[in-house]
Amino acid sequence: MPTFLQFPTTQQDPDLHYYSLAAANDNRYPVAAICYVSKCLKRLLEANSSKKEARKTRHVTGQAICDALKDSLLEDYGSFAIDVLAQWNIHETNDFGNIIYALIDVGMLSVSPKDSRTDFVDVYDFKTALKFTPEGDVTKEPWPVLDK
Question: What is the 3-state secondary structure (H, E, C) of the chain?
Answer without folding.
Answer: CCCCCCCCCCCCCCCHHHHHHHHHHCCCCCHHHHHHHHHHHHHHHHHHHCCCCCCCCCCCCHHHHHHHHHHHHHHHHHHHHHHHHHHCCCCCHHHHHHHHHHHHHCCCCCCCCCCCHHHHCCCCCHHHHCCCCCCCCCCCCCCCCCCC
